Amino acid sequence: MSGISEMSVASAFSGMTRVDPVVFKAACPDCRGGFELSANALRLVIGATHRTTFYSFTCPECGTAVRKPAGERIVELLTGGGVRALRLHATVQGA
Predict the structure, then answer these.
(1) Is-above-0.85 flag for pTM?
(2) Residue 29 CB-density burial (10 A; 0-12 exposed, 13-18 middle, 19+ buried)
(3) What mean pLDDT is predicted for residues 63-73?
(4) What pLDDT is attached to residue 17?
């Protein structure tokens, strides 16, 4: 024996607590509806400049595609809450 005792799944997870999924409050500029979205309902694009960094979602009330700018703080909040980010890479011109 190597001195390692077996552990059941129940005992391995016994000290863990349930974590509620993160939700983000959002609003639609078209229908002016307010709602909460899960991380997988948001898309985050991080570009080379503030003009190419934004998040987007589809309004669950009217179906409008919404795109809003994302500064550093918004990027931190979204990525910290589990929103996946698409990072755009600048291309090198005239090499």
Answers:
(1) no
(2) exposed
(3) 96
(4) 66
